[in-house]
Structure formats: C-alpha cells, structure tokens
Design a protein that fits this description.
The protein is of the alpha/beta class. 34% of the residues lie in helices and 27% in strands. It contains 6 helices and 10 strands. Strands 1-2-9-8-3-5 form a 6-stranded mixed beta sheet. Strands 4-10 form a two-stranded antiparallel ribbon. The termini are far apart.
Length: 143
C-alpha cells in the first residue's frame, strides 16, 4: 500500500494524461539523452535563471508565473512562448526552484497537447543538493 501512495504522489492526472515527476538524477540522464530542459523560474526584480541554472545542453527559460506585488500571476503568454521554441513532440524536462511551478507548468503543457513532458521533482534546489553541475553568473561589482 505504501508503494501505491508513493507512486500516486509522483503522478498528477490531467485531462490529457499524467505528468510523471522524476528525481534530479533521472532528469540528468534524460537531459544527457537529448531531452530539452525548460526552466520555468522567474522572480520580480532579478531572474532566478540568470543567477544560476543547471549546466545542461539545450536549456530554455520561459517563466510560468510572475511574482508581482499582487501575488503570483500566470504568464499569459507561456504557451505561445513555449510553442515558439518547442514542438508538441519535443521531449521536455520541466524544472523550477523547488518543484511547484514546474509541476503546474508540466500539467499545463500536457493539457495543451504536448506529448512527452516530465517534471523534475525538487527543482533546482535538489539539483544543487545532489552536486550536479550548474552555471553561475558572476556577481557584478557592487553586489
């Protein structure tokens, strides 16, 4: 029974199917095999992605949510922006900082007809905790 509940926590059912959540080690293997990394992070004043992100080939940053003074607001252009860079047949691993935004974004993409979308559980924080390679933007003078 415990195994079933663990599996249930890894899947989120959508109208078009299920989004599978994998750990960062499995995500790294998919990315090595040719999957594209879609990072959906962004904050109000300084973009999280620009500060630091996984060091992988074929990475793309399209924010799923914007943090505003009024709270979180979904990027109304998210689908159009993804479709301008990806086809619905592309193999995607979706990540964020901790896993919440990426799961929501992955579900949204599956519902929009994307065929192979995987959520990276734990997000960038888990990537770093596991000692996986990152690209860090050097701090500018005065920071």
């Amino acid at each position: 029974m415990r195994i079933l509940s663990q599996l249930a926590s890894l899947l989120i059912t959508t109208q078009s199917g299920a989004v599978i959540t994998i750990d960062v080690l499995a995500a790294k293997e998919l990315l090595i095999s040719g999957y594209r990394y879609l990072d959906v992070r962004m904050i109000t004043t300084v973009e999280e992605f620009d500060k630091s992100h996984p060091d992988v080939e074929n990475v793309l940053n399209i924010p799923y949510l914007f943090f505003t003074p009024d709270g979180k607001v979904k990027n109304s252009d998210f689908l159009d922006q993804v479709q301008s860079d990806c086809s619905k047949q592309d193999h995607l691993v979706v990540g964020c900082l901790g896993g919440g935004r990426s799961l929501a974004a992955a579900s949204f993409l599956v519902n929009a007809g994307f065929k192979d979308v995987t959520d990276m559980g734990g997000g960038y924080e888990a990537w770093v905790e596991n000692g996986l390679p990152v690209i860090t933007k050097p701090k500018e003078k005065g920071q």
